[in-house]
Amino acid sequence: MNTRSLQCFIMVYEKKSLTAAAKDAYISPQGLSKVIKQLETELDAELFFRGTHGMEATESGELLYARARHLCYLMEDIKKEISIINGSRNALNIIATYSAVSSYSLDTLYSFGERNPEIQMTIREYPDASPLEDLFQEQADAGIVLGHERISNCDYQILHSGETVLIVPSGHILSGRKTVSLRELDDMALVVKSVVPGEEQGFADKCREAGITPRIRYESENLASIHHLCEQREVAGISIDFLEESFPDRSLEIVRLEEKIPQNLYFVSKHREIQNQAVELFRRYILNQRIKLR
After folding, report:
1. Local structure of residue 119 (DSSP, 8 states)
2. What is the pLDDT of residues 224-266, one digit of tens each?
3. Which of 134, 168, 222, 264 is deepest in the core (most CB within 10 A)?
4. Which of 280, 273, 278 is nearest to 91 (CA)?
């Protein structure tokens, strides 16, 4: 008994005709009749009898029909899972946001592909403010991203814990400070990282909670641009501590916020009952690199 014979049985049951079922199954009526007889031999039971309305199922036939669809679906699921494990094992599409590349360089990411040449690896960089949900649904198997809340039906694991910090140029009113309260930023001119349209960032939420309204003078996704604006315009900027540690600027000082605003880096992958082996290999590699970075 195999899924093909079960599918043929289902067609005969539903069409109540060998001729009509044979047409849908792309097989001759004689060939389909042999398939049914083989099933009856294997099950040691009669499955059909000729009634007034064509091929009618016996009690055994009714029982088999009640189970046959589930068995076919189960076999298809098994084939899909095996395909994920083996068939698609050689393909790996990775998304890395700009903040991720600050901690895991492209050289580090591509080294995984060099160590596993049998895997066809593709890495695409995107701004942190990109619509990650759409990207994951359409093309990504896994990614290293800033925050995971925007991505549904995914598994995630924290890679690097960070927090929002203030960066100020020398001579700024907050220069020389180790920490600052959000209340001190009320009506202060700021440069901030761009956020996803329609979504708020943790900094804006915290400002509302504190009842303050900073003056957002500039927005940029590019860290170098934020640094440049802070220096040239002599304004404070909002950044992330691990980004500043990765790309230090001697002309700017880091001032930590008393109100902690988490900015964490995550490994994210599509949720599957059985994970693609290439994704699992890459996840282990990234976790090992995280340990080395500490």
Report:
1. S
2. 899 999 999 999 999 999 999 888 899 999 999 999 999 899 9
3. 168
4. 278
Collapse the DSSP code of 213 into the 3-class scheme (helix H, G, I; strand E, B; otherwise coil) and give the result: coil
The neighbouring-strand residues paired with 264 are none
Rounded Cα–Cα distance for residues 123 and 7 (Å): 41
Planar angle of CA 154, 93, 134, nearest 5 degrees = 50
Say if strands 179-180 and 154-160 run parallel, antiparallel, or are unpaired: unpaired
Nearest to 60 by CA among 49, 71, 70, 69: 49
Beta strands in 186-231 (DSSP E): 189-193, 215-220
From CA 123, how far away is CA 141, in angstroms rounded? 10
- Partners of residue 218 on adjacent β-strands: 191
| Domains recognised in the chain with CATH numbers | 3-87 (1.10.10.10), 91-161+264-293 (3.40.190.10), 164-257 (3.40.190.290)
Q: Which amino acid is at 247?
A: F
User: What pLDDT is recorded for position 198?
Assistant: 42
The Cα diameter of the chain in Å comes to 97
Segment 190-211 shows an average pLDDT of: 75
Intra-chain end-to-end CA distance of the chain, in Å: 56
Six-digit token pair at 117?
A: 């040449």
CB 285 within 8 A of CB 112: yes
**257 phi and psi angles, rounded to 5 deg:** -85, 140
Q: How many helices (H) and strands (E) does the chain have?
A: 11, 13
The identity of residue 280, as a single letter, is E
pLDDT tens per residue, range 64-97: 999 888 888 788 777 766 666 654 557 788 999 9
